[in-house]
Amino acid sequence: MRFKYVAGKYSCVTQTQTQLIDGTEVAASIRSDLISSVNRITNTGTTPQLATVLMNDDPASQTYVSMKHDDCEEVGIETRDITIDPEAPAAELFDTVDELNTDPSIHGILVQMPLPDHVDEREVLRRIDPKKDVDGFHPENVGRLVAGQPRYKPCTPHGIQKLLIAADIETEGADAVVIGRSNIVGKPMANLLIQKADAGNATVTLCHSRTNDLASKTREADIVIAAAGVPEMIDGDMLSAGTVVIDVGINRVETETGSELVGDVEFESAAEKADAITPVPGGVGPMTRAMLLWNTVKATAITTDVSVELP
Ligand SMILES: NC(=O)c1ccc[n+]([C@@H]2O[C@H](COP(=O)([O-])OP(=O)(O)OC[C@H]3O[C@@H](n4cnc5c(N)ncnc54)[C@H](OP(=O)(O)O)[C@@H]3O)[C@@H](O)[C@H]2O)c1
Description:
Blueprint: E1 3-6, E2 9-12, E3 19-20, H1 23-42, E4 49-54, H2 59-75, E5 78-83, H3 90-102, E6 108-111, H4 121-127, H5 139-146, H6 155-166, E7 175-179, H7 186-194, E8 203-207, H8 214-219, E9 223-226, E10 244-247, E11 251-255, E12 258-262, H9 267-273, E13 276-277, H10 284-304
Parallel strand pairs: 3-13, 4-5, 4-6, 7-8, 7-9, 9-10, 10-13
Antiparallel strand pairs: 1-2, 11-12
Bound molecules: NADP nicotinamide-adenine-dinucleotide phosphate.
Subunit structure: Homodimer.
Pathway: One-carbon metabolism; tetrahydrofolate interconversion
GO molecular function: methenyltetrahydrofolate cyclohydrolase activity; methylenetetrahydrofolate dehydrogenase (NADP+) activity
């Protein structure tokens, strides 16, 4: 099986069985379905609204926030854009979160990370009303997820579950290796995969930078989910034939002509071995964005007691 990167996307250039899991397409379908969910809520007199709070000068964070606003607009979710001077005292951010918590027109709150050093990230996450915590990072929501009663699943692992379902990947009984133990990707991903639920019932090995002989783990896996933030660290030699490979990594690397985005997986050699694989870009990234919209619609239903079907 061979893939070629042409005009911004990978194309299969030989006839083989390998499935390219297209996150752009699945995310577009979820957004399209969410428009109906939003319309149903809006018809009851409530318009879903997401508040974003940005407290840093990082251009990448500004871009992420503006992309989130564009995504919301596309499906009919209103947004409130709050920026706080990074030099301001932490209390200003806490007061803002308190106001958003009690504002009935705001259904979801997202505080863009990173925060300045003088602001305790954990304190901010604890401060957000767990019913408006569309990132799913509040300890109450983390606990619910671990206990198997998720309220909001964090967007990236939730998006990966949706991708696995859309691509018809069987997780029940599968040996899954998750590489990375961050609170936003690796840990919730492992927790979701072990649950007695759709896209769950897997046997999970959670690997990290202190894991001995990572290749021996990945070679045993039916599903490899790479979320380490190390460019192209997983190559075909580390995989067995027939593996499903989900590449979460987004790494900017220098090239002779400038720079490009690559994943944590060396695509060409991994695709030679894989049964199914996500590209970077166009795999997990669009799903993360779509699931923020999904969580915001769910948050509107939860905070207003409006019942709505979600895709
Ligand atoms: N596609 C998306 O929508 C999306 C969303 C979020 C993140 N990302 C990307 O996903 C990647 C991971 O993000 P993150 O926020 O989870 O990163 P993170 O907080 O830096 O965590 C990285 C994890 O990978 C582990 N790790 C690092 N090097 C390793 C190695 N050589 N072998 C095995 N494990 C290793 C670390 O282990 P230790 O715990 O031992 O340090 C850590 O647990 C990044 O490239 C990020 O940009 C993409």
